Amino acid sequence: MLHPEAPRFGVARNAAPGPASASDGPRRLRRLIVGISAALIAATATAGCGGTSPRSVSLSHTASSSSVVPVAPAAPSAPSAPAAPPAPAAPRPPSICKARAAIARVLGAAPSVRAATANSSYPECIFRVRVARRRVVVVTVEVDIEPSAYAVLERTIEEQAQIFPTRTHPAPQHVGHLGLDASWFPEEQQLQTTDAVRLVIVTIDWPSAPTARKIALAVAAARPYLGRSESSLARGPAP
After folding, report:
1. Are 172 and 161 in contact, with CB atoms under 8 Å apart?
2. DSSP category for residue 108
């Protein structure tokens, strides 16, 4: 028979837990830290494998939807009109003051020049030269370009040579070796000549100069304006 206060062998079923040892506190803290670390690592791995936050999804959807702009279909272009052919170049007007050097050779002094328009609406050039004793010589050159230039000249010569009923002015004087034909008209102090394309009219204002010198000056002034004589265009006087 056992003593009432003697301890029994074995563990009592309802024995109260004994006091916690000093090492249980740090052990629980380590378990908590390890659990939290494992949870953080798992969350990081999930995000790295393609997980996206609702905010990032919303921003991505907004950016993609705003970049899509509807484009209206292009209207069919109208067929281009054929290019217009280039306009023919206008004929160059004659150099109306080209007799300056020729006049200077005859008179021994370079003239001043002034381009103008004659009463016939054709171009003309007026040359002025101061010679000895302060006298001024004026040479006016008019160039008419027309297909019937030869006929106009011949008719003028014919009319000036006629007598109705008596001659009131000297007859035209023929001038050779100049164009297809040429004549000096004493009444007008004028030389007229042609190459069948141009009718060149040279008027001389040179008081007290001999007629021979006036004709020589007029011939020198007219020659630069004449081209090649077109005999095929030389027809009779105009009716």
Report:
1. yes
2. S
Helix axes 211-222, 100-107, angle to 10 degrees: 150
pLDDT reported for residue 31: 75
Percentage of the residues of the chain whose pLDDT score is greater than 90: 45
H-type alpha helices, the chain: 24-48, 54-66, 100-107, 149-161, 211-222
Q: pLDDT digit string (tens) for 173-192?
A: 999 999 999 999 999 999 99
Q: Mind giving me the DSSP string for 16-54?
A: PPPPPPTTHHHHHHHHHHHHHHHHHHHHHHHHHTT---H
Q: What is the mean pLDDT of residues 23-49?
A: 64
Chain-centre distance of CA 72, in angstroms?
37
Report yes or no: 204 and 190 within 8 Å, Cβ to Cβ.
yes
State the Cα–Cα distance between residues 62 and 127, nearest whole angstrom.
Answer: 88
Q: Per-domain residue ranges for the chain? A: 100-233
How many CA atoms lie within 13 Å of 101's alpha carbon, on the beta-carbon side?
4
Are the C-beta atoms of 188 and 173 separated by less than 8 Å?
no
